Each structure stands twice: as C-alpha cells, then as structure tokens.
C-alpha cells in the first residue's frame, strides 16, 4: 500500500486542502495519506505561522474527522525549536511508511522552489514526487525534478490560507472556504482576528 505525504502550514486548513486529499486518495488507489503540519519554517523561506501548532492540528483533525486512510503526523512539531527540513521528516517517518516508495505531494509553487530545499536530491531519491497544478504556472520539463501532476485543473486554484486569514482579519465570512467545523473552531478560539 502506497503512503502519500502531504505537508504544509495548514494555517488554516481550507476547502482546497480537503479537495486535494480526497482526490489523492481516489486517484492513487490503495493509499494512505499522512498530513504533516510544518514545524518551525525553514529560515530561507520567508514564511511565518499565525496559529499555534495545537490549533493547526486541531483544525486538521476536524477537517478530516471520519475520513478513512488519513492520519496527522506531529513529527515536525515535535522537532522544534530547530527548523523543519523535510529530509529529516522523511527519515523520522521511515519506519511507518511501508515497503513501497512513498509519494510526496506538493503545490506547484513549492515544486518551483524545490531545488532550494535542504538536501533536495536526497528527498528525490526516496520519494515519488507529485504536484497540484496552479493556474498561470506552466511547469518546465526540468529533468532534475521529475514530478507528475495529480490532476489537470484545480477548482480551488485561487484559494489560499493567506486569503482566508486576510478575510478573517477584515471581519469577512469564510463560509464555504473552510470546512464548517474549522470555521466554528476559528470563531470559537478567535483565530486570525486583528493580526
């Protein structure tokens, strides 16, 4: 059985993430999927987390409650305070990945920055690389980064966690953009307001 690894900040998890997970499970038959929320971001990428680790995990649990074959790994969260490097995550998860080469699922934007990842060639040697296409991106056929598209068109292409955080800061609704349980959690805990 193939294991699919899908990492990200999930700050917050949104409808696009949910769609990608369901499509990965449907298209990559006989798979299990591990969600890996980012720990301390790599300092080489200008990324900051808004919600706490506990809140991001709780929202993932709500978004995927009752979805079979999906689990959440806190490996990167337990490695703080040092930056999360995926090559270390891969090594840490090795015993739980089964015998088949795991698939690593990335957004197409991450695919373009993949050569900047710490020891990216070591990662490529250990995974099958898949990506979620983005509109306006036309992936070059770079031979050093062999990757396959999960599907052709992403119906949630313009949706991002940044957009959701911005709407919440402005007091706007995020109905339909995040799962209802996640919207309830955000409201109950006052996340992303006034940041």
From TrEMBL:
Q: What catalytic activity is recorded?
A: nicotinate beta-D-ribonucleotide + ATP + H(+) = deamido-NAD(+) + diphosphate
Q: Which EC number(s) does UniProt give?
A: 2.7.7.18
NAD among keywords: yes
Q: Which GO terms describe its biological process?
A: NAD+ biosynthetic process
GO MF annotation list:
ATP binding; nicotinate-nucleotide adenylyltransferase activity
Give the UniProt keywords, A-Z: ATP-binding, NAD, Nucleotide-binding, Nucleotidyltransferase, Pyridine nucleotide biosynthesis, Transferase
For the protein in the UniProt heading, the enzyme class is: transferase
User: InterPro entries this protein is in?
Assistant: Cyt_trans-like, NadD/NMNAT, Rossmann-like_a/b/a_fold
Function of the molecule: Catalyzes the reversible adenylation of nicotinate mononucleotide (NaMN) to nicotinic acid adenine dinucleotide (NaAD).
Fetch the HAMAP family from UniProt.
Answer: NaMN_adenylyltr (MF_00244)
For this entry, the protein name equals Probable nicotinate-nucleotide adenylyltransferase
Per the record, the gene is nadD
